[in-house]
């Protein structure tokens, strides 16, 4: 739905300090482009709806292609729909520095998630063109396809294809929210399953990857800093725990003679909320999905299924937390006379950011007049997929109140521009390596 009353560019420019536009970096241009993309898939709530492989995502990509060409980049599209704009540099035979993010969104998301990463990488290329700077190494701006995964309940689809991580058979069997098969859906935007198979790149072609993304948290806001350097990306590990008791009549079964699965599960949920803090400050555990059976008001719950999302940026401490959670579940179930079944349903390894890239980003922040601040990423990004194979860095932009995946998502233009400057300084500094 097109809502002509919403003007993101104007809102961004209200508080912008024009003195920040220097050395080729233009806040005015960044605001204009954010504003243009915000109109594609604009919702009634002034949010964004651009599902992966939709015509809206395609239109947003086409806008970026036009801007890539304005910046002097040579543009191509791979078999997964990833858009790559290339600046050959002085030594085009060298491995490329890759930077970018995505332009698809959740069903009623904001206008900064993913988009600011693409436009930040592009703004650096445009600034180089406008100032006559030519990098030594080739530089590529990438728009990854379907990062959010709202179409097929997955995500990171484009980056997985580029890294060769796609399970083609599993993807081909998926259906979207309209019941359409993957192959049929992607044909709407000119893609094919066979093309996906050919999207993998040689790792030897790429030196490293860097992504700019909104924080989606409150740490930078609390520190009053425009941006921060990510130390690692937490890998999600999902546990399914089934507490099995005995269903019974809520009125005729004495409190002393019950095997109430929900009481045991409730005790467990409360207990594990205290476990992550005992391990380190980057570990988290969340119960966001429970199933109660038979789920009757006058029936003692006989079975409860609990899903636990466990994350940390370090594999060793994440495993320590997993072990503690399993041990506590077993102890609690036994104390209530309940049986327990456990199953791992999802496991993505954490991705630490190489120390040397963190240090280079810290120096870039200092050179830009910003106090370097390190923080973990609890959410997954394209950098998580690329980082499993290649050196990857991640730079966060401050998020207002930590809100994301919501029309109220907001990053101030001053913060965005300062982050672009850090990215630019970082990209220029690694030309000398």
Automatic annotation (TrEMBL):
Protein name as annotated: Allantoate deiminase
UniProt lineage: Bacteria, Bacillati, Bacillota, Bacilli, Lactobacillales
Binding-site list for Zn(2+) 1: 102, 113, 213
Keyword Cell wall biogenesis/degradation carried by entry: no
Gene3D superfamilies: 3.30.70.360, Zn peptidases
Cofactor descriptive note: Binds 2 Zn(2+) ions per subunit.
Keyword annotations: Hydrolase, Manganese, Metal-binding, Zinc
Annotated organism of origin: Alkalibacterium olivapovliticus
Pfam short name (any one): Peptidase_M20
Subunit structure: Homodimer.
């Amino acid at each position: 739905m097109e809502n002509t009353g919403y003007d993101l560019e104007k809102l961004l420019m209200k508080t912008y300090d024009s003195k920040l536009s220097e050395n080729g970096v233009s806040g005015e241009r960044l605001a204009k482009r954010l504003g243009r993309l915000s109109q594609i898939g604009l919702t009634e709530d002034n949010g964004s709806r651009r599902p992966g492989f939709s015509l809206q995502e395609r239109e947003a990509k086409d806008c970026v292609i036009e801007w890539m060409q304005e910046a002097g980049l040579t543009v191509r599209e791979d078999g997964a729909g990833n858009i790559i704009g290339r600046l050959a540099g002085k030594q085009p035979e060298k491995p490329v520095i890759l930077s970018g993010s995505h332009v698809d969104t959740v069903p009623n998301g904001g206008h900064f998630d993913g988009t600011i990463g693409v436009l930040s990488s592009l703004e650096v290329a445009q600034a180089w063109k406008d100032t006559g700077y030519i990098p030594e190494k080739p530089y590529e701006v990438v728009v990854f396809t379907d990062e959010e995964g709202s179409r097929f309940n997955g995500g990171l689809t484009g980056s997985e294809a580029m890294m060769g991580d796609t399970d083609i058979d599993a993807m081909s069997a998926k259906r979207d929210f309209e019941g359409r098969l993957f192959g049929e859906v992607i044909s709407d935007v000119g893609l094919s399953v066979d093309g996906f198979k050919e999207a993998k790149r040689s790792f030897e072609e790429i030196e490293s990857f860097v992504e700019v993304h909104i924080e989606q948290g409150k740490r930078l806001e609390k520190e009053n800093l425009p941006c921060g350097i990510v130390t690692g990306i937490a890998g999600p590990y999902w546990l399914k725990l089934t507490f099995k008791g005995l269903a019974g009549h809520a009125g005729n079964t004495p409190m002393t003679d019950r095997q109430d699965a929900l009481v045991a599960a409730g005790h467990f949920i409360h207990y594990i909320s205290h476990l992550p803090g005992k391990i380190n400050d980057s570990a988290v555990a969340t119960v966001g999905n429970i199933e109660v059976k038979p789920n009757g008001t006058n029936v003692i719950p006989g079975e409860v299924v609990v899903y636990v999302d466990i994350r940390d940026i370090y594999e060793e401490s994440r495993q320590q937390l997993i072990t503690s959670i399993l041990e506590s579940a077993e102890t609690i179930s036994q104390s209530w006379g309940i049986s327990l079944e456990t199953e791992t349903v999802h496991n993505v390894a954490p991705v630490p950011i190489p120390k040397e890239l963190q240090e280079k980003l810290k120096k870039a922040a200092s050179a830009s007049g910003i106090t370097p601040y390190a923080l973990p990423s609890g959410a997954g990004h394209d950098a998580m997929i690329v980082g499993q194979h290649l050196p990857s860095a991640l730079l966060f932009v401050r998020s207002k109140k930590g809100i994301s995946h919501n029309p109220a998502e907001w990053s101030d233009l001053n913060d965005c521009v300062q982050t672009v400057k850090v990215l630019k300084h970082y990209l220029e500094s690694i030309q000398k390596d």
